[in-house]
What does this fold into?
Amino acid sequence: MTAHEFPVRVCQAADASVAAQLLHDFNTEFATPTPPVGVLTERIAALVGRTDVDVLLAGDPAVAIAVITFRPSVWEPGPVALLEELYVRPALRSRGVGAAVLNYAMDSARARGVTTFEINVDEGDVDAQRFYRAHGFTEIEYPETGERAFYFHREL
Amino acid sequence: MTAHEFPVRVCQAADASVAAQLLHDFNTEFATPTPPVGVLTERIAALVGRTDVDVLLAGDPAVAIAVITFRPSVWEPGPVALLEELYVRPALRSRGVGAAVLNYAMDSARARGVTTFEINVDEGDVDAQRFYRAHGFTEIEYPETGERAFYFHREL
It folds into this structure.
């Protein structure tokens, strides 16, 4: 099977529970606490149709999901895109499905006037870093020094 | 002078050119290319009143600015906040103005139901890292390993 057998599409309200199950399995695979599938289904359903988020699926039944948000910027005329999630079912990896989803996401972002596309990647996730570098991303903020940027966060 | 002399407030349409000048000076100080003040004024004016962004100023005339965006999340019931910019005029640093702006931003985010507040900080900007750690932020994603996350990006 190749990526062509899992065409990328925009998640519809009817897909919310399938999308939620993928997100749930994503967290479970990486031993991250996850809301129940029912809660995720409601959240996905609330996101479908919003203009500040893309939820993408690949295949039917879906075997991959991506969530991309768009937010306003003072530096650029268009919004900035952030890839929040990208998950491919383990049995279907290394076949180009993730690449197809990412390319669809970038095309969708371009169509919205996005000129900066962002992703936060864990330091130890060298496979993901290789994947994103192969797709034109870099963690280098200042090429002359090689300086990177860290993702800081806190709970409120 | 102390931070109390520069009360934090929400940027109004009439403040757009002052806010734009601060953002322009921010970039100029750090030798970053910047759009002209006129362009930034239009962008700020377009952001004022939007529900997915806070533009904050401190003092009148303003001596500090912060821009915070809010985007939907599948993992949390409320939006996620990202501190996009925080700038204090050089002559007024180390007086608590930045802390007052950041605290105002976090209070505003809490009032919107935000439970995760994020910031990307340059690797070499150890002063900023110290400032954010002192305000409860961490770059550690996984306390058991000390793993961080990197900010990746690409132009479209």
Observations:
- The CA atoms of residues 15 and 45 of chain A lie 8 Å apart.
- Chain A is about 30% helix and 25% strand.
- The radius of gyration of chain A is 16 Å.
- Chain A touches chain B through 58 residues (CB under 8 Å).
